[in-house]
Amino acid sequence: MADKPKTAIISDLRNYTTVRKGNIMRKLALTDEILLSVDKPARYIGGEINMRVKNPKDVDIRFCMCFPDVYEIGMSHLGMQILYDILNNRKDTYCERVYSPWTDLDKLMREKNIPLFALESQDPVKEFDFLGITIQYEMCYTNILQILELSQIPIYAKDRTENDPIVIGGGPCTYNPEPIADFFDFFYIGEGETVYNEILDLYKEYKRLGKSRREYLKAVARIEGIYVPAFYDVEYNEDGTIKSFRKNIDTAPDRIKRQVALDINDSYHPTRPLVPLTKITQDRVVLEIQRGCIRGCRFCQAGMIYRPNRERDLEYLKKCAYEMLKSTGHEEISLSSLSSSDYSKLKELVYFLIDEFGSKGVNISLPSLRIDAFSLDVMGKVQDVRKSSLTFAPEAGTQRLRDVINKNLTEEDILTGAYEAFLSGWNRVKLYFMMGLPAETEEDIEGIAILADKIAREYYKIPKEQRQGKVNIVVSTSFFVPKPFTPFQWARMDTPQEYIKKQQLLRSKINEQLNRKSIKYHWHEAEVSELEGVLARGDRRLCKVIYDAYKAGCVFDAWSEFFDYEKWVKAFADNGISVSFYTSRQRSEDEILPWDFIDIGISKSFLLREYKRALSGSVTPNCGQMCSGCGAMAFGGGVCREKKNLTAGSAAEDKTEDIIAAAGGKYESQN
Amino acid sequence: MKARIKFQKYGAMKFIGHLDVMRYFQKAFRRAGYDNEYTKGFNPHQIISFAAPLGLGLTSDGEYVDISLITSRAPKDMVESINNVLTEGFRVTGFHLLIEPKKNERQVTAMSLVSKADYLVSLKDGYSLGERFLTPDAFKEAFESFYAKSEIFINKKTKTDEKLVDIKPMISMISFSEEEYKEKLKSILSDVTRVQNDERNFSLEAESVAEVYENGIKVYLQLDTGSASNLKPELVMEAFCIENQIEYNPYAWQVHRLEMYAKDGKTGKLVPLDHLDR
Predict the structure, then answer these.
(1) Chain A from 346 to 385: CB within 8 A of any B CB
(2) B100: pLDDT strictly greater than 90
(3) Nearest C-alpha in A relative to B55
(4) Would you say A569 and A528 are in contact if contact means Cβ atoms under 8 Å apart?
(5) Do A278 and B20 make contact, defined as CB atoms within 8 angstroms?
(6) Between chains, do B28 and A47 touch, taking CB under 8 Å as contact?
(7) B52-95 pLDDT, tens per residue?
(8) Which residues of B touch A122 (CB under 8 A)?
């Protein structure tokens, strides 16, 4: 690892421009002419409120953190704010940020050969020690290549030299990092709060000793949770499945253990989050109330990979909320977590926020809540009932299929919840379903239409004079994409043709309902879901496909206006790769899955047991009721620790718990 | 109570559009602990009003926002507390408590008062007007003869259409140096003086944030601004370029707003917005 070229820091004023005598300011990487000719120049100038300012000359490590999507999306991500805080709390490190340049600037940067730059210092990313990319969804994979190419960093890790930054991947998609393995020097598997300091300390030491990039990678591979793809080889069987996955150096671990932060109850929450200068998707204070979920829905990757469920301390959250509102000036606060109704102190927290800040012009944005007296009360307090709608996520149309996916929400819960809400003045309902779930039949599809109709009928049970006009029900369906580390990781996924047939079936079934005129139907495009399905459960052979698709012009695939299915189809064909091998093939129990080398903390036998229970329609109690032995207890924290005395017997006797578990209705504010 | 705040916008913040500036200040007031008045309802928002929005890419020494407060601390304190929470590119230079309108009197806003504004338009370094205008003197000579014309017609585009207008009457003063500009202002401005620091007012002695370019080609313009008659400095420069057969490049000019004025109904003289009582 040679020293970086020193051009980055010629003098202290390298990053500043003189306006008037004595008045120095940050200099921008882009000219006025470029900034004034692209859409939303605020994306590229940095200078946000609470941006950390350091002199690059004063630090040992320059770390550029990247969210590979447009600024407004990337800036809305809480995880990046947490890491930005942790890394900048180190005196020897300056953590800066970069996001995907929108297509207009992308074009100009290529034409003028302008290297991609970090927002803080406006220095080229290629001059940094690290480029850390957070990977939140599969459809951003081509954007990662765009970031690398615009940064003028070799796209393939094997082509990088001593002068290039070390490229790290992190985030939920890295729980199957194989489709993008060739582009990263290493992956950080797990939550960022745990071993970053070790990684950086080691780097500093190795840099001081003048050690090479490869020597550093060999050393970093010994830190728990670090996966260096170059140290592992994959062999394939003739049928295309994996024959073996083996390390090629002795010192690398056989399995990579997911990192879990067990002390988040009263630490690591940012208190001075960045406030952008332009409107972004989440233009508000975001309070993470808990991590992980006790529910165990079988389709949900987040519900598995963030185990164990860990709650943050109520008093700590109050303090964070207060400090964040003070340091940002935001006029809105929202709560972030999976299944927020399960947070044990939710009532206290929400009433605190309303009482403490509601009178000070702060809007409280409610998360999805199950419908009960409490949620109806707070909903009525914080928003205009006439303008908001109720959201339920039954996910499947019949009780049988809801049992298959372990979604503990009964028809009765939904109908009672809707009726209560209708009585309180609501008249708009949104329903979310998935299509293509394992064991799905035509009856399940029809069940969606019938359920929507039943909800409408609930509305008309209310005396006419109490109704607020007509009821309005929106049914949305998305296509189920099986994900790694879920009980459905072996399942076959429907083909786009099968999906479309089901869509048409539902359309016609809705038209047969009594209240068909009150029901609107929205659906997702099948092609994007198919690609997501390939990338989610793919292996290393997909790296070349992603590369070719990117080179053919694919970028911003998550944006429907840019998604180009034909180019992807061609990239698969050119590489002789069959899409259906990855999507609509039922995997056998003993197949080596591309992500098997990652120890997620949930055992494969638990996932298989759950898969079998799913197919037999058996539900599994949630972590709050009893432990089902997924394996996460080994982490030694969170809900597993609090509930470990509960045996199966005592949980079953606890009827109240069952009732609470059954009422999983979701609510979401919608203005 | 109403207060008028004067602020500067400069550096990278010239790339922040008007709506974002509004959002920026709403958050800044909260950080500074201002006791703003809010509208009622489920989505309360601060009662605030900006005078003549500044276009993207422009810098300014003379921006104004009127706010509504429930309580206020001393003006000096208000200026200091907000400057402590502003980021580079924004600076508050004045805070003035306004007189409440009497009964039967309408509340006036900064927006409705503006009638003129001063601008400094400079050629950015790295751009050229061609062989004929290499020096500030050559530019000055050409601009003076352009301004000496009895009428200056140019296509003025609005959202819906485009029409030929004479912009000459909308230009009330031109100058080519700071000294000349300040001298000319003396006869234009009303002689109202503003106390710098008392229980209702505080003004900061602030240096201009206008960017300075080596080529020295620049012009000071006083133009109609506001709802009755409005002329953008960019349009003047475009007309000048057309007159002199130079290709007009909108990126070549840095436009900087210096001050905004209301017109004194009796004398016809101009009063800077921070010298008004309401």
Answers:
(1) 361, 363, 382-384
(2) no
(3) A36
(4) no
(5) yes
(6) no
(7) 899 999 999 999 999 999 999 999 999 999 999 999 999 999 99
(8) none
| Residue A434: strand pairing partners | A478
3-state SS, one letter per residue, for A92-124: CEEEEEEECCCHHHHHHHHHHCCCCECCCCCCE
Tens of pLDDT, residues A225-244 = 999 999 999 999 999 999 99
**Tens digits of per-residue pLDDT, A497-532?**
999 999 999 999 999 999 999 999 999 889 999 999
Token pair of A661, please? 């578990």
Minimum CA–CA partner of B41 in chain A: A384
DSSP secondary structure string for all residues of A124-141: BGGGSSEEEEE---GGGH
How many C-beta atoms lie closer than 10 Å to residue B19's C-beta? 11
What whole-number distance in Å separates Cα of residue B61 and Cα of residue B92?
A: 10
Sheet holding A186-188, edge to edge: A93-99, A61-67, A130-134, A166-170, A186-188, A226-227
Contacts of A41 in chain B (CB under 8 A): 15, 56
In 3-state terms, what secondary structure has residue A88? helix
- What's the pLDDT tens digit per position in A22-61? 445 788 999 999 999 999 999 999 999 999 999 999 999 9
**From A263-277, A632-646, B63-77, B186-200, the region with the lowest mean pLDDT:** A632-646
Residues A502-511: tens digit of each pLDDT: 999 999 999 9
Mutate to test the interface with A, among B13, B20, B30 (most CBs of A within 10 A): B30
By C-alpha distance, the chain A residue nearest B211 is A19
Q: Find out whether A417 and A370 touch, Cβ atoms under 8 Å.
A: yes
Chain A residue numbers touching B40 (CB-CB < 8 A): none
Domains in chain A (CATH in brackets) are 6-257 (3.40.50.2300)
Check residue A5 and give its pLDDT: 38
Q: Provide the residue type at A570 as one letter.
A: K
Q: In chain B, whose CA is at the least distance from the CA of A41?
A: B15
Q: A645: Cβ–Cβ under 8 A, 6 or more apart, which residues? A: none
Selection from A301, A314, A372 nearest residue A343 by Cα: A314
According to the model, what pLDDT value does residue A371 have? 80
Q: A42 and B17 in contact by Cβ < 8 A?
A: yes
Percentage of residues in chain A having pLDDT higher than 70: 92
Question: Alpha helix (H) ranges present in B89-210?
Answer: 110-113, 136-148, 178-188
Mean pLDDT of chain A: 90
- How confident is the model over B134-163, as pLDDT tens digits? 999 999 999 999 999 999 999 988 778 888
Q: Which residues of A touch B36 (CB under 8 A)?
A: 361
Interatomic CA distance for residues A638 and A263, integer angstroms: 9
Q: Say whether pTM exceeds 0.90.
A: yes
DSSP A329-372: --SEEEEE-SSGGG-TTHHHHHHHHHHHHGGGTPEEE------S
Domain boundaries, chain B: 2-113, 116-189+211-275
Give the residue from B31, B86, B91 with the most A CB atoms within 10 Å of its CB, the best one to mutate. B31
CATH classification (class only), B2-113: alpha beta
CA B130 to chain centroid, in Å, comes to: 30
Q: Is it the case that residue A667 has pLDDT exceeding 80? A: no
Residue in chain B lying closest to A48 (CA):
B87
CB neighbours of residue B35 within 10 Å:
12
Whether ipTM exceeds 0.90: yes
Q: Which residues of B touch A45 (CB under 8 A)?
A: 12, 15
* Helix, strand, coil % over all residues of chain B, rounded to 5: 30, 30, 40
Q: What mean pLDDT comes out for the span A58-70?
A: 97
Which candidate in A31, A35, A277 is best for mutational testing of the B interface (most B CBs within 10 A)? Answer: A277
Taking a C-beta distance cutoff of 8 angstroms, is the pair A257, A599 a contact?
Answer: yes
